[in-house]
Write a structure and sequence with these properties.
The structure is a homodimer.
Chain A: E1 3-4, H1 6-14, E2 23-26, E3 30-31, H2 33-41, E4 46-49, E5 58-64, E6 67-69, H3 72-79, E7 87-90, E8 97-106, E9 111-119, E10 126-128, H4 131-137, E11 143-144, E12 155-158, E13 163-166, E14 170-173, E15 176-179, H5 181-186, E16 194-199, E17 205-214, E18 221-225, H6 226-232, E19 239-245, H7 249-257
Parallel strand pairs in A: 1-3, 2-4, 5-18, 6-9, 10-14, 11-14, 15-17
Antiparallel strand pairs in A: 5-19, 6-10, 7-8, 8-9, 8-12, 12-13, 15-18, 16-17, 16-19
Chain lengths: ~260, ~260
């Protein structure tokens, strides 16, 4: 392609999809003066995308099984006064670990024992399950990013020393990509971007809305749950390909057709 | 876009992705004489795609739980001499039914009782499970289209009157779209096409390689298994959007970048 004109921008606007801000342009794209003015008038910046980087970059997959994050006080309720979590093994994100401790989740229809606690303990208790787990428990949590717990269902957590009735905090985790600041710069990704990621195995699925989470402490990792892993035939250590940033696939197809 | 040139075709070929045959062109696309010759020399036909039809068409979803198709002789082994299947309810595809009969699947690591038999009985016995089921049974079948059973693993099927040791026939079903001949014409889809289908709910996934199966007896239906349904938050009766035919998403993105 290469040439971004005012006409093509107006066509994008007219199609109802709006213009991303900043507007991504490839290294070989050219923007006509009229198109540049058009963007400037709308206070839309330009974002240069390094060629051949973002398209095709491979991102390692981390499959998250059901797990629980506990507040310090809930650790004590579940495992006894003065208890703390003990690391079983380190996780891909620095400082995070799978704890030796496990709990039982109890829902209206069933329970799931042996659910791993992740450490270290954090401010608010949060339970992450798959939709398959939800069927077994008899609950139907929404898809949420970690920490976004307002209005989510509760659940009962049972430990060896006691139980916690959580009034909210049960989620199915929204898939997301952890990126270090360096990864983000290298891949031209910004915090909050929506990434399109293509699985490369026997079940070619595209994850069309993976949220980018950028932090200097993060390691590059695409986090999905077991349902998503099974649907795409992915395992921890496999890779997916970054095929787009902040793009709607239906729009891509329409562009090609008209 | 609109203009298909010999240069753009050579670029497609050069990228290693090959050219689809027939080559799809939108109603507003123009093909230069050189490009038309280029395609003709390679015996590649042109396929006009009706505008605004294929892109955006909604296709109903049918979620397939684990199930078994049985040969007539296996029906007798499992349910007794002279037995036949009894319809419990009709399925979306004409003439197909969920039978009252169920069996138990027995694998190296576990078993799953109450697995529905689908009728009518057919030539060869075939067992379709999800990857999640496979973990429970201790087997890892490949993703296959129905009927493509060469080299697939076996499984033990237990019924009330006997058991069948299947030496092959266990698959995870490849997702596919049933289309009537009329549906296919309306959507410009041909038998064997690979469809890109976008889920529209809380987990926007694109199924990037759904096989089109066209038959005059078929009803429009996108068949996925329970893992795929959970990963996309889809249920039977939901719809997905057809966003492309025989296209590679990574290519779409590259086109936009360069």
């Amino acid at each position: 392609m290469g040439l971004i004109t005012e006409t093509s921008l107006r066509a994008m606007l007219g199609s109802g999809r709006g213009l991303p801000n900043p507007f991504p342009i490839g290294a070989e794209d050219r923007v006509t003066p009229a198109a540049a003015d058009f963007l400037k008038d709308r206070r839309i910046g330009l974002r240069r995308i390094a060629p051949g980087r973002e398209a095709g970059a491979l991102i390692p997959v981390g499959v998250s099984n059901r797990h629980v994050h506990l507040s310090p006080s809930h650790v004590e309720v579940l495992f006894g006064r003065g208890s703390r979590l003990h690391s079983l093994r380190e996780l891909s994100q620095k400082g995070q670990f799978a704890a030796q401790e496990t709990v039982t989740l109890v829902g209206p229809k069933g329970e799931i024992p042996g659910v791993r606690v992740l450490g270290p303990s954090r401010g608010v208790t949060q339970v992450e399950i798959s939709q398959t787990d939800g069927r077994q428990l008899g609950v139907a949590p929404a898809v949420r990013l970690s920490g976004d717990l307002a209005g989510t269902p509760g659940i009962l957590i049972r430990g060896p020393a006691g139980a916690v009735v959580l009034s909210e905090g049960l989620i199915v985790a929204r898939n997301h990509v952890h990126l270090s600041t360096d990864d983000a710069a290298r891949l031209s990704v910004q915090h909050g971007d929506r990434l399109l990621l293509q699985s490369l195995g026997d079940r070619p699925i595209v994850f069309a809305d993976a949220t980018a989470r950028v932090d200097e402490r993060f390691s590059l990792d695409f986090h999905i749950d077991t349902d998503e892993a099974n649907a795409a035939f992915l395992r921890t250590g496999d890779v997916v390909r970054l095929v787009g940033i902040n793009m709607n696939i239906a729009d891509l197809f329409r562009e090609r057709q008209t």
